[in-house]
Amino acid sequence: MFLNKNKWVFDKEHSFYTDSENTVSTAFSADQQNGLLALEDDSWWFSYRAQVIIGKMDRFFDRSKLTLDIGGGNGYTSGRAQKEGYRIGLVEPSWSACMNAKRRGIETVCCGSVTDDSILDSSVDQMLLLDVLEHIKDDRSFLRLLRKKLKRKGLILITVPAFMCLWSSEDDEAGHFRRYRIREISSLLRECGFRIRYKSYFMSFLFVPILLIRVMLEKLGILKPQQERSSEEKEKIAKSQFRSRKGIVDIALGIFERFEAKLMEKNDLVPFGSSIIIIAQKNKE
């Protein structure tokens, strides 16, 4: 068992573990988590991201070993991976997100945080850290903490948003501290005791639209910053960004996705994109 039994109790009513000392605030409120839940199942973005992640899990991870999804939110990607035969445990501090993950069928859900003694050292074979690290102020200390929890030669798959030139008010609203370049996160992981097994940008076809629409239109005053938008405007923009595509947009993006996926299947580096995927392995002590 990877949990410190002195820190966790099993909540029979909700069928998941809870951290008895959990006082962690989360980047997203219950309303935001539920809003994401309403988008995820019909979202091309979440679907494509999960496709990329599971493709790399198939290359590097072992289905028979437990994979912990750290800060896994509502469990969209965990649920997809579990359906593909992976043993998944989700660790998430948001109560509402944990409830959503259980409704999705995630078998092992832990409502709490990865504190220094909440998860046993050297107990975890594989980890997912999906668009979480950018929310952590001290990313270096957090990665070192996760390294302690991994077994010898344990693996971690990380996704993060890429390029500070793509920073917009949506990053501020989401509680991001930074966006990364591949060389920056690679150097950080090596400094924290990992060796890089795979790295690439992805979502390359979103780089220019984000730069032009989110960044430039905000700077020109044509698009309101996120904090000035009404809840109705935020919901409308979120749906337009994430909802399933139709017609020529679906055809065009489908072509870009297939081309990018082919590069990644061959372990080639996609030279730019709005996101990064990187797989690292715990070095020997």
Task: Provide the fold topology.
Blueprint: E1 8-11, E2 16-19, H1 30-40, H2 44-60, E3 66-70, H3 76-83, E4 87-92, H4 95-103, E5 108-111, E6 124-130, H5 139-149, E7 150-161, H6 169-174, H7 182-191, E8 194-202, H8 207-219, H9 231-242, H10 247-265, E9 275-282
Parallel strand pairs: 2-5, 3-4, 3-6, 4-5, 6-7
Antiparallel strand pairs: 1-2, 7-9, 8-9
Helix pairs in contact: 1-4, 2-3, 2-10
Structure write-up:
- The protein has about 280 residues and is α/β, with parallel strands linked by helices.
- The protein has a single domain (about 10-280), classed as Rossmann fold (3-Layer(aba) Sandwich).
- Helices cover about 40% and strands about 20% of the residues.
- It is built from ten helices and nine strands.
- The protein has helices at about 30-40, 45-60, 75-85, 95-105, 140-150, 170-175, 180-190, 205-220, 230-240, 245-265; strands at about 10, 15-20, 65-70, 85-90, 110, 125-130, 150-160, 195-200, 275-280.
- Strands 1-2-5-4-3-6-7-9-8 form a nine-stranded mixed sheet, sandwiched between helices.
- Helix 1 (about 30-40) runs parallel beside helix 4 and helix 2 (about 45-60) packs across helix 3 (about 75-85).
User: How many structural domains does the protein architecture include?
Assistant: 1
> What is the highest CATH level, the class?
Alpha Beta
Poorly predicted tracts of residues = none
The CATH superfamily bears the name Vaccinia Virus protein VP39
CATH fold node name: Rossmann fold
Form type: globular
Structural class, by secondary structure, is alpha/beta
**How would you name the oligomeric state of the polypeptide chains in this document?**
single chain
> Would you report the number of β strands?
9
For the termini, the CA-CA separation is: 22 Å
Number of helices: 10
Major sheet: size, sense and barrel closure? 9 strands, mixed
What is the average per-residue confidence, as pLDDT, rounded to a whole number?
89
What is the string of SSEs from the N terminus onward?
EEHHEHEHEEHEHHEHHHE
